[in-house]
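#onboarding

Welcome to the new folks! Below is a worked example of what a typical request in this channel looks like: someone posts a single protein sequence, and someone else replies with the predicted structure as tokens. Don't worry about understanding the tokens yet, we'll cover that in week two.

Example request:
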Amino acid sequence: MTISDRIFERLRQINMSQKVFSEETGISQSTISEWKSKRTNPTSEKIMLICKALSVTPEWLLSGIENTGDRGNNADWYVIDKDTEMGSLISTYHEMDERQRERLRGYMEAIMVSKDGEKGR
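Example response:
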């Protein structure tokens, strides 16, 4: 199954029209139709937009494999929407110089230390 096959399968599953999908992603309807008629795949810069609109992971969209439960490998990375609280934190962190980052990591470590001196979560 190709990426475009997974896109159209997911659109069917969530009962989303190509028009709504186009509006949510900002991808033209003609481009989306081309994926279907010519069985081509979207360009890499569209992947995250598509994943957000379809509520799927990039791993699933690209490979068809969903990392759930104890199966599969845990990723050593995160995919985070910049428009979320976590995305905002990461953007701010990237704007800091190394001294500020080190200071922030120190604060975080101090917060995570429980009353009895052990690291907690």
